Task: structure prediction
Amino acid sequence: MSFSNQVKQELVRELPDKECCRRAELAALVHVNGQVIPMDGERLKLVVRAEQAGTARKIYTLIKSLYGLETTAHSKTLRRFKKTRIYEVHAIINKDAELWKKLQGFSTSSTRKRYLTANLIRRHCCKRAYLRGMFLSKGFINRPEGEYHLEIIFQELALAKEVQRLLTKFNLSSRIVERKRNLVLYIKEGEKIVDFLRVVGAHKALLDFENVRILKSMRNSINRQVNCETANLAKTIDASVRQIQLINQLVELKGWEFLPAQLRDLARARIEYPDKSLKELGDLLDPPLSKSGAAYRMRKLEKWAEEIIDFS
Result:
């Protein structure tokens, strides 16, 4: 199961206690995937599509519990995209019914325009419920082991911008881009995705996401440390090889006694311990030298050796 489906399965089990929140969540589900179709006389049919059976069950439950309408659920197989199965919830509405009055403001079969009214989400809990419904409708979240990415797909710019403004109420910054005739609202930062999961109530998914984030952070920290140590070791080895070559050439030309005593001790230590750093070489001398002191003498030895070898 994908992580996105895991999050949605958790969210479909989250049924708000407050009626206002149930209305807000249902509105989000209808805003994105709903359509009102005229029937005979005063009757209309509300059709709400869902990609998962759990989401369809939630839409069915919300419509029945809130408005007590004649409601049915159906499954359909689309021939496109390798016969994808989708689900539809149908509800019969009278034009004088409460649900139609609420739907009239944001969804009609003719204009397909939708509007997010202030009354619908005036409470903080309703804003959270609305965002939960939006993610259930057309949301996707990548597995945390990969790149951090959360998105919600829209067909209308007005609704996408209203949801974007709603996200800012929770300090969640997002961007909107166009992709294949759709509009995609997305969040890339891992910390912001965690905040979004907290807002919509996906607490188990949040913990799973955070666990992976912590492991990735530790792994990246260890990798950086290993890479740094490997780079330092490579530099030490390269410097050691160069220094040993210079010392051997100088000794072949002039012999050990030609070297001043201070430089001779350091040169012998380098030949004897080719894998040690300058700090470790300084500790081996008598009296010991600091890292800066050993580095100073080694630079002096290298420069002196190069001058003598070039002159010879």
Summary: Residues 123 and 142 are 30 Å apart (CA to CA).
